[in-house]
């Protein structure tokens, strides 16, 4: 095979105070895990046996700090419920290195003031999941303390 589809992604965390001012904005490359690559392959091929394959629909956060691996199927220590993805944007661009036209999808979710708060234990990880609890991607980042004085927007960008 000559063509390659190297999926890659990055999570951007945007922490805002109650006035809407950005207190922290940070990006971190993610790892698309084996289950996520399999999910994309099975959706592409129209896999018809077993549970239906569904697209990613939620983002979870947690406190685990172990580096992501291909074998990951969940977060190290999930905090709270998964948050629905509320915004999806698509775009295209030409990769400057390979000159290949690429597709970018940007998924966003908001952890409002009342969600995932614990001033004693900062958030350190996030993951993208589908409705069947398949982990697509996981990232570990520098600690972010989430309390009821902050909203945290998670913007996950995946390039195909």
TrEMBL record:
Protein name, entry field: Tail-collar fiber protein
Protein source organism: Humibacillus xanthopallidus
């Amino acid at each position: 095979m000559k063509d390659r589809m190297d999926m890659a992604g990055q999570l951007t965390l945007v922490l805002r105070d109650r006035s809407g001012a950005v207190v922290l904005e940070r990006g971190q490359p993610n790892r698309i895990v084996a289950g996520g690559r399999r999910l994309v392959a099975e959706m592409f091929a129209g896999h018809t046996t077993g549970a239906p394959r569904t697209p990613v629909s939620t983002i979870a956060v947690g406190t685990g700090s172990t580096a992501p691996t291909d074998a990951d199927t969940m977060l190290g220590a999930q905090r709270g419920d998964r948050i629905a993805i509320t915004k999806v944007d698509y775009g295209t661009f030409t990769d400057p290195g390979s000159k290949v036209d690429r597709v970018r999808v940007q998924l966003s979710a908001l952890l409002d003031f009342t969600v995932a708060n614990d001033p004693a234990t900062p958030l350190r990880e996030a993951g993208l999941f589908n409705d069947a609890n398949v982990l697509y991607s996981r990232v570990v980042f520098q600690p972010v303390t989430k309390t009821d004085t902050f909203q945290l927007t998670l913007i996950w960008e995946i390039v195909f």
